[in-house]
């Protein structure tokens, strides 16, 4: 990907601004304009239209939206499975001792 100096400046600016225009949000997120229009139309991404025409995005809200639906790593899933097995094993032992009393 060979970016011109103007594109590099625009990209740098996107990373420092708190409020992004529609085109800046597309550049920042890597989403095409047509896809972003679909998201705004379906209201799946948070956005602002202060005068009813131009679309703006809060960079922090856009980041949160892009990072939703996190998928756990294999290591995290394995740790969770071990933890649940230990809890289940402890409950089984505790309940069997309780019944004997």
Explain what this protein looks like in three dimensions.
- There is one protein chain.
- By secondary structure, the protein is mainly alpha-helical.
- It is built from five helices and two strands, in the order αβααβαα.
- Strands 1-2 form a two-stranded antiparallel ribbon.
Give a brief outline of the structure.
The chain contains 5 helices and 2 strands, in the order αβααβαα.
The count of DSSP E runs of length 2 or more, i.e. the number of strands, is 2
Q: Please work out how many helical segments DSSP would assign.
A: 5
* H and E order: HEHHEHH
Radius of gyration: 24 Å
What's the arrangement of secondary structure elements?
Layout (H helix, E strand, L loop, with lengths): L4 H12 L2 E3 H8 L3 H9 L14 E3 H8 L7 H27 L1
Antiparallel strand pairs: 1-2
Question: Top keywords for this entry?
Answer:
single chain, 101 residues, mainly alpha, two-stranded antiparallel ribbon, 5 helices, 2 strands
């Amino acid at each position: 990907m060979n970016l011109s100096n103007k594109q590099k400046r625009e990209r740098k600016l996107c990373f420092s601004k708190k409020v992004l225009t529609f085109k800046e949000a597309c550049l920042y997120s890597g989403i095409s304009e047509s896809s972003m229009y679909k998201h705004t139309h379906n209201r799946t991404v948070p956005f602002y239209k202060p005068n009813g025409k131009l679309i703006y995005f809060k960079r922090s809200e856009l980041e949160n939206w892009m990072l939703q639906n996190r998928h756990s790593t294999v290591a995290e899933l394995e740790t969770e499975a071990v933890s649940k097995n230990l809890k289940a094993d402890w409950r089984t032992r505790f309940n069997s001792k309780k019944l004997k009393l």
